[in-house]
Amino acid sequence: MACNHCAVAHPAGTSCPAEQVASPMANDVSLVGQRHGPLVFKRRLGAGALGSVYLAEHFPSAHRFAVKVLHPHLAARPAMRQRFYAEARALRELTHRHVARVLDARPGPLGLPCLLMEYANGEPFSRLPMPLAPVEAVELLVQALEGVEAAHARGLVHCDLSADNLVLTRDKRGERRVKVLDFGASAVLSASLSKEERACGMVVGSPAFIAPEQWSGEAVDGRADLYALGVVGYLLVTGRLPFGFGRVGELAPPQPHALNPSVPPALSEVLLRALAQCPDDRFPDARSFREALASCLASLLLPPEPRSPFADDEALLPEIEVVVDELVDGASAPLVTGNGPFPDTGVPWDILPHPIPLTPDMAVPGSGSSISIFGQAVPADGATPLHLALREVARVATPMLEVSAPCEPAPAGLRIRVGLGEAASLVSVDAGDVTSDGFFAAWQGALPPLAARVPAELTFAGRTVWCVCDVVRHVTQDEARIWNVAAGIFVQYAEPGEPLLQLLAQVLASTRKPPRPDVELARLLSRAAAVAKDPYTLLGAPRHADFEEVRRRASAALRRLDGFRQRVLPEPQRRALESLRKRVEAARRTLGEPLNRAGFDALRNNLAGLARCVEAGLTDEALEPMRRAYLAARPDAEARARSLFTQGHALEVQRALRGALSRYAEALALDPLNVSWLRHYQELRHRTRAAAGGTSSLSSGAPA
To answer: How does DSSP assign 5-27, residue by residue?
Structure first.
C-alpha cells in the first residue's frame, strides 16, 4: 500500500523519512528561544524530511532570517553533515532576485548543522486563490523560471519544485516577487537513501510534481524542474493538478483551456509541452520555456472578455481600478446615515443614484449579517488558504533584510570609519545604503565573519559618534562582479544610543525626498470613471452573483487595498486609495445585504440579482414597504404592469411560453419588487429552459 506521505510503497518494517518528521516533535526538541550567534530562534516555520525551519530574529535591528536545522538523526551521520555543508557552499554562490538566498552554514544549537537563509515572507503558490488569471499565472511562472535558469547555469538542479516551495513575496518597492526555496534539499535527502530504499522505488520529492524519469530512478537533469513548473503552471490556471496526487500515468491531462475557458489555447500548448512524459519532448532549458510563455503574453495582455466560471452568459468584469486625479479632484461621496434610504449602511449616494425613500421604521429587524471571508472550507479564523494570498503583505511587517546589491551612496558630508584594518583599527570606507538601522561598507580585504561585531565611527556636520555594529551580510567578490559594485559588508547598529539616533536623523533629513508614486498602485488606479460608480463592476462580480461570492470578492479586494496602505505613498495616491477603499466598503454593503441589494437591483432592473435576494430569504413582507415607495414614485406603473402580467398569463395558458416570458419581463421591469411575480417568472423560465435541454435558472443566468 502506498505511503500517505510520499505515495511510494515501502518495504515491510521500514518507515518513510517524511513520516518521521510529520509531527514537529517527532525527531527533535524545539529550538525556540535558542541562540544562533546574534540571532534568536523565535518560532518554528515548518518541518520537512531534511530538517526544521525556524524564524530567527536579530533583536538590535529586528531583521529576520530563516534558519534550516538538520534533523538530529541525519546530523548523526558524518556523510550527511558533509553533504549538507557541501550543498550550502554551492548554494552560497547562487545569487538571484528570484531565489531565496543562502547566506551561511555552520553548527548551531546543540551542534546541529544550520543553514542561514533569506526569510521569504509571503504566500506559497499552493495557497493562492486559484485559478489565477492567465496573465497573472504567466507572470509568476516566468519569474520562477528566471530563478531556475540562474540555478541551472551553475549546475544546480532543484529536483523537488512544487507549489509549496514557490513563494510570492513583495520587494521593498511593493512589487510582487517570486522566490524559489529549498535548492539543494533534495540532493542532501537523496544521499540519505540506502541502496535497498532506492531499489524498492523510493524517491525524494513531492509526488504530484515529480517527473516520470524521477519515479523510474533514471538520471535527471534540469528538464525535471521544467516538468515540475509545468505542473505548477497547470495548477495556477486551472485550480487542479494535471495528474492528481502521486505517480503520473500514460494518459495526457485535460487541456487547460477545456477546464478554464479564459486560458488561451496557445498557453495550454506551452504547459502541456512542459508536462511531456519524455524529457526530450519538453523544452530543452528554462530559457526556452520562459520565452514560450512570453510569446503567449502578448495575446494575454488584451484578451477577449473572459467568460465567468459561474454562468454561461455573463462575462467577468475588470478588477478594482480608479484614476488618481479624478478621485482626488472630486469630492468624496457623502455617506447615507440615520434617515437615509438604508440606515447605517454607509452607501454613497452616487452608488444609489435614485434612492428609494424609505424611513427607518421600514427596516427589517435582524436583517443584518456578519461579513466574513468566504471560501470552500472555513477554518477557525473564517478564511481559507485559497483566499489569503495577500494577507501577510497587507499587515505591518517588521523590517526585512532585502538581499540585493547596495545601490544608494552615502549622503554628502557623512564620513564613516569601520574597524576592518589590522587589529580591528578604524579605517575610512566608502559607505552606502545608510538607514536608521545600519549601512553598507565597501572593503576589498578579508571580510569579517557573519555575526561578528566591529566598531564604527560616524562623522557629520562636525559631530562624531562612536558605535558597535553587527555584520549581517556579505557582498562577496563574486557578487560584486555580478552586480558591478564594490565588495563589502552590511552592518546593523548593535545598541544605538540617543547620540547616534540623533546624528542619523540629521543625516537622513538632509537627503529625504518625497516618495515616488507606487507603480503597481498607479496601474490599479487607472479606470475610476468606468467602474467606481457601479458596485458590481467595482467588485468584478457578475449581476447574478450570489451573496457568498460578493462578500468573498469584497474581502479579497479590501485585503489587496490594505496591502497598499502600509507603503510609503505620495499624498495624492494615498487620498485616492482611501477614497477607493470607501467605495469598496460601500459596494460590499450595497450588494452584500439582501435588502440593500434588492433596492439597488430594482433601480437597475436586474432580475437575476433580485432573484438572489429572494433566494436568500427576503420575503414579500420585508420588500412591501420598499415596493410601495418604488411604485409611488412611478404613477400608473402598477396598473400597466398588472395588464402586462395578465397578458403573459393568457399566453402561458395557450402554451405560448416565449411570449409569456416576454410579457412577464416587461411587467417586472415596471414592478420589479413584486416577489410573487418574480418567483412565477423564474419558475416558468426554468421549466422552459429544462424543456429545451438547459438547466440554468434565472439566478444563474443573465437577466432577461
So the answer is: TTS-PPPTT---HHHHTSSTTSS
Q: Are residues 498 and 547 in the same domain?
A: no
Q: Residue 27 burial by CB count (10 A; 0-12/13-18/19+): exposed, middle or buried? A: middle
Q: Does position 10 have pLDDT exceeding 90, yes or no?
A: no
Residue 164, Cα to own-chain centre: how many angstroms?
Answer: 13
Whole-number mean pLDDT of the chain? 74
Supply 384's cell numbers. 481559507
Residue 300 has what pLDDT? 55
d(CA 546, CA 397): 34
DSSP annotation of 407 reads -
Residue 466 forms beta bridges with which residues? 457
pTM: 0.44
Task: Give the three cell numbers for residue 260.
Answer: 478554464
> H-helix or E-strand containing 141?
helix 134-153
Name the β-bridge partners of 622: none
Residue 461 is part of which domain span? 415-509
**pLDDT single digits (tens) 463-514:** 999 999 998 888 888 888 878 889 999 999 988 889 999 999 898 887 766 6
- The answer on 351 and 225 residing in a single domain is no
Q: Using CA atoms in the order 99, 104, 106, 109, what is the torsion angle rounded to 10 degrees?
A: -80
Taking the C-alpha atoms of residue 81 and residue 77, their distance in angstroms, rounded to an integer, is 7
Mean pLDDT for the stretch of residues 438-453: 89
User: Looking at the domain assignment, is residue 606 inside a domain?
Assistant: no
In whole angstroms, what is the distance from residue 210 CA to residue 201 CA? 13
Catalytic residue among 28, 104, 160, 433: 160
Q: Which pLDDT does position 689 carry in this prediction?
A: 82
- β-sheet with 166-170: strand ranges across: 123-124, 166-170, 176-180
In terms of domains, do 141 and 274 share one?
A: yes
Residue for grid cell 538566498: 101
CA distance 352 to 626: 14
Q: What is the pLDDT of residues 633-648, one digit of tens each?
A: 888 888 898 888 889 8
What burial class does residue 601 get, using C-beta atoms within 10 Å of its C-beta: 0-12 exposed, 13-18 middle, 19+ buried?
A: buried
For residue 504, how many C-alpha atoms fall within 13 Å in the half-sphere facing its CB? 18
Q: Quick one: 77 and 39 in the same domain?
A: yes
Residue 691 cell numbers, joined: 424543456
169, containing H or E segment: strand 166-170
| pLDDT tens digits for range 402-416 | 456 777 888 889 999
Element housing 647 (H / E): helix 637-653
Rounded mean pLDDT, 57-84: 85
Residue 45: what are its φ and ψ, rounded to 5°? -85, -30
Which of 490, 509, 528 is a domain's end point?
Answer: 509
How far are the Cα atoms of 146, 241, 278, 291, 692 from residue 285, in angstroms, in the given order? 11, 23, 14, 10, 51
Tell me, yes or no, whether 186 and 93 share the same domain: no
Among 143-147, 177-181, 183-187, 604-608, whose mean pLDDT is lowest?
183-187
User: Cβ–Cβ contacts within 10 Å for residue 549, how many?
Assistant: 18
Are 598 and 608 contacting, i.e. CB atoms less than 8 angstroms apart? no
Is pLDDT above 60 for 607? yes
Same domain, 131 and 105: no
**pLDDT of the residue at 418:** 95
Task: Let me know whether 111 and 128 are in one domain.
Answer: no
For residues 246-256, give the mean pLDDT.
68
User: How many domains does one find in the chain?
Assistant: 5
Q: Are residues 141 and 254 in the same domain?
A: yes
Residue with cell 544549537: 109
160 included as an active-site residue: yes
Tell me, what CATH number does 167's domain have?
1.10.510.10
Provide the percentage of residues in the chain whose pLDDT is more than 70: 73
